[in-house]
Amino acid sequence: MSDTIFTKIIKGEIPCHKVYENDLVFAFLDISPLSRGHVLVIPKEPAATLDQLSAESAGALGEALPALCRAVMKATGATAYNILQNNGAEAHQAVFHVHFHIIPKVETGEGLGIVWNTKSLESGETLAASIREHL
């Protein structure tokens, strides 16, 4: 994987407002936030999408995310938040390095807006069986 803006931030080549770092995870304020306190949480491992990430880095992200969510809520006074994570251009991923957005939702309406276009579940058991086979 080639260098992305996130690998350059991790290396210190691009400045950021760091909020958290350990051996495997790095978190910083988004420079184009949807709301005050919008944080990006990234693995130091350079994987483009979540399915390409090692179990070790995935576990470290899973451990860091709840603590970061609590800290963002306390720092901003938000009572709700969204976690957003996109994989692939078709899923609106713009930087091809795994990253999670913590986006505080506040009473002013700032934050992530979502339109949920639901469909009917067709062939549910067949699809579930196929997914289980691939685990």
From TrEMBL:
Source organism: Eiseniibacteriota bacterium
Residue positions of the active site: H99
GO BP annotation list: nucleotide metabolic process
Domain HIT: 5-113
Short sequence motif named Histidine triad motif, residue ranges: 97-101
GO molecular function list: catalytic activity
SUPFAM superfamilies named in the record: HIT-like
CDD domains per record: HINT_subgroup
Signal peptide location: none
Gene3D superfamilies: HIT-like
Protein name (Swiss-Prot/TrEMBL): HIT family protein
